[in-house]
Amino acid sequence: MNERYDVVIVGGAVIGSAIAYFLAANPDFDGSVLVVERDPTYLKAATSLSSSSIRTQFSNPINVRISQFGSEFIRAFADRMQVAGEAKPDLGFHPGGYLFLAGSTEQETVLRENHAVQKACGADVVLWNRDELANAFPHLNVEDILLASYGRSGEGWFNNTGLLHGFKAKARELGADYVTDEVVGIDREGGRVTAVRLRSGARVEAGTVVNASGPRAALTARMAGLDIPVEPRKRTIFVFDCARAPEGSATVNGGRLPLMIDPSGVFCRPEGRFFLAGCPPVEDPAADFDDFEPCYEEFEDIIWPALAGRSPAFEAIKVVNQWAGHYDFNVLDHNLVVGRHPDVQNFIFANGFSGHGLQQSPATGRGVSELIVYGQYRTLDLSEVGYERIVENRPFLEKAVI
Q1: What's its top-level EC category (predicted)?
Q2: What are the pLDDT digits (tens) for 312-364?
């Protein structure tokens, strides 16, 4: 580790490592990069504990386009991220698609509005009536469904830690430094941050500091005298076995089932020979940074009743595993915050992904690298999700949050 770096990234999970990769891979960047990660095992990182999915079915064009790039990048990941002397990283992308179900006129209206946005962006999403839905997925009870939205391509799930470690390994091969330490202070002189201070006692001068610290984003910002409305929100994921698994019964997509979002908010998707499920919590307070105790009651009280009512195949199911992770939840508008602080120009935010960080990491990494290297976005303009709206208390709401 050197005494000074052009860019210091606080947080080395998927967002921080994506930024490090895109910087190091950019032929127009000849600077130095340091990634500071407090836990290199990533056991409690939002990256590792996510449901590992990607979709284009969002309500805002920018989020649709972010995921379209993410999907393309993930499909080409093995070749782009190959490190000399090592096997290609296989993300095992499973193109199952997403299936949103509307059970009320309000939900139907939202699906139609979102679909118009998605189609305008070129997303491969279709709307189905009740009969079309029943024909595609015969195992479902559809009597209460008014409309369904299904992603025919560009959506699915993949290896979450494979994405993280692929970014990290390639970034290191290209010259980025990683250190196991924790940022405990950020020095600032007027409108510029000048250095980070580490728990080990080291002080590292920085030309630019990037906040990629996930659910701890607000803590990192406060060290620089700044603020961001991001806090950890706990989400529990359950893996269950199914006595009569319906996987293979679909009449579309080679029989594969999608990630289904029930009108209740419960979601479910295949996970190998099992299924993975979760739900929005009834109460959703900020979680303690170290609280990873699963909300066990959610399965019996919320998830199983909804799934059993949706399909006879889900009447006899048994939990085989569960875990809790944290969303880096943006309480203003549930949307990512990416960009420079208007008054501290060399402090960049890459935070508040609200459960979408894994799928949004490729576009975020590319966008932040462009800001640093060129002073502006050159591919996908992320200005709409910049920090200015935080200062102005101007929500840029994402309605399609799971």
Answers
A1: oxidoreductase
A2: 999 999 999 999 999 999 999 999 999 999 999 999 999 999 999 999 999 99
Q: Which residue has the tokens 């199983």?
A: 304
Provide the token pair at 101: 């179900």
User: Cα–Cα–Cα angle for 100, 104, 106, nearest 5°?
Assistant: 90
Check whether residue 247 and residue 319 sit in a common domain.
yes
Judge if 272 and 353 occupy the same domain: no
Q: Are residues 140 and 65 located together in one domain of the fold?
A: no
- Distances in Å between the Cα of 161 and the Cα atoms of 15, 46, 169, 193 are 12, 10, 12, 31
Residue 246 has pLDDT above 80, yes or no: yes
Cα 74 to Cα 328, 339, 388, distances in angstroms: 22, 23, 30
Is 261 among the domain residues?
Answer: yes
Entry pTM: 0.96
146 in the same domain as 23: no
Report the relative pairing of strands 33-37 and 230-242 from DSSP bridges: unpaired
Asked if residue 239 and residue 227 are part of one domain, the reply reads no
- Total domains present in the chain: 2
SS3 (DSSP) at 163: helix
Residue range 28-72, pLDDT digits in tens: 999 999 999 999 999 999 999 998 999 999 999 999 999 999 999
Residue with tokens 């996970």: 271
Residue with tokens 């269950």: 240
Whether 367 contacts 228, CB under 8 Å? no
For 229, phi then psi, to 5°, come to -80, 60
- How far is the C-alpha of 97 from the C-alpha of 103, rounded, in Å? 20
Secondary structure (DSSP) of 185-234: EEEEETTEEEEEEETTS-EEEEEEEEE--GGGHHHHHHHTT----EEEEE
In contact, 330 and 352? CB cutoff 8 Å: yes
Side chain identity at 126, as an amino acid letter?
V
Task: Assign residue 124 the CATH number of its domain.
Answer: 3.30.9.10
For the chain, the residue count is: 402
Q: Are 13 and 325 in contact (CB under 8 A)?
A: no
